[in-house]
Structure formats: structure tokens, C-alpha cells
Design a protein that fits this description.
This protein is mainly α. The chain is built from 14 helices and three strands. It has three domains: 47 residues, no CATH class; 134 residues; 81 residues, HRDC domain (DNA polymerase, domain 1). The radius of gyration is 24 Å and the shape is flat. The chain starts with 7 loop residues before the first helix and ends in a 12-residue tail after the last helix.
Amino acid sequence: MLERPLSSEQILYAAHDVTYLRDIFPIFREKLEANGRFAWVLEESATLQDRSFYEADVEALGHKFRFLSRKWQPPFILKRLLAWREAKAVAFNKPRGHILDDAILNSICNDPHCFQPHYVLHSFKKNYYVLNFDGKDHYVARFNASFWEKNALFESFQRLLGQIENQIKNVSDTEKACILKKLHDDRKRSQFSPLEEDPSKRIFLKNWVQKCALENEIDPALFASRTDMDLLLEGFLKYKNLRKSHSRLSKGWRRELLKNFFEQHKPNSETSSVIP
């Protein structure tokens, strides 16, 4: 992962890259149009220009965290900490883990005393600032910044905990029930995943994708990621309909190349049972 913000040398390198690509582009375009693939480039570029493509889904980020209790408070706290961390990562132009590490974040959510004033700014050491709680030092921020910037970040963190503490007092019973239901559903989903229970489905689709990619002289990694394939299969398992998937494989030029696969596995198809 590139360190952020970019150094002056990295920025200059990127500028040179763009300068040369501008001159090469007409040659690329001519070849792509001759192969009927220029529309694919426009489709990919449209995705990259969509701002939402780069915005983190706080709900999705929270799925990997595990809570020690079945109470509603930890997920309530986590959602707000994740949103705060994401905003600060954007403001400081740093990876989110350099603002607040996942392990520390998880510890805070599971700490029943997280609103008591024992979260103290213990010291600064090199590029870290250190929180001291539960009798231990926890290294949190991992980036170059002035003392005042890090102090401001910590003060913002303390204010956030105070805000969450006040919000918790006013949570309605209905909202608590919704949080608990989602927590229950997430636990159930993580305990039973058809794709993990039966990996043959993933292998089956991977073979299809690799075959299709090689036939069309495309790098399989560019054609589909593991996430793309899992989203496609989860859509099939949930709806028995591949077209309802959120995967990139069910859209645009990728779907067109996988046309035969979709035809064989459309709803009520006699051959739909081919998926293991």
C-alpha cells in the first residue's frame, strides 16, 4: 500500500505517466476499436469516475468485527467509531488503520468502561500516539504529523466518546431491537456460509471465469475478483437468479462474455442444476 500523502517524487512520476499516456492513447484507442473493446474501457472508466466507488460502506466495514457480548451497545458504538475514523482518514489523507487500528477499535467497543475517563493520552512515541486503558499502552495513530495535529485528533476522539455516551442514553427500544436483530442476522450469516460449507460452487464458477477470460485473451484477475464471484454465487443461492446479483459479472461486457453461463443457469432452465 502506498503511504499517503504522496511524496513529491511520486507526484512527479504520476504526472509523467499521464503525459506519456496522452500521446499513446490514440494508438490504444485504434486497437481497442478494431477489437470492439473500446466500449469496455468506457464502462470501466465510468465506474472509476463515480465518487461512490471510493466511499467506504461503514456497514460493510463493520461485518469483520466480533463482539464479546450479545448486547446492543457494542455495534452501536462501533458504527459511530467507524464513521469517525473514515472521516479522519479522508481529512488526513491516510489509511484508516493509521488513524485507529482495527484491534484497538474492537477493544474499545467491547470495553464496558469505554466512557470512563481512563482513555488518556499517555504519550507520543515516534509516529504514534499512545492511549492508555485497561492497564496497558495501546499504539494508535501511525503517521507523520505534528504534535498539534495529533493532539487535535485525540481531542476529537474524546469528544466523540462523549457524544456517543449521550446518544446511548436516548436510544429507543425500537432502535435497540433493530440493532439486536441485525447482530443476530450477522452472527447467523457468519456461522453458516454455503460458499464456505461447499467450496465446489466457487471452484465451478472460477473454472468458467478462467476459461472465458483465456478464450478472450484477458487476464483472469482483471476479469473477475474473488469478491465478484462470491457476490454472483450469493445472488444465485439467495434468489436462484444470477441476474439479481450485485457482482460486476452480472453487468456490462463481463456479463456479455459470460452469456453462455447465464443462459445455462437462468431461472427454470433445465440445465440450471449444473451448478453443484
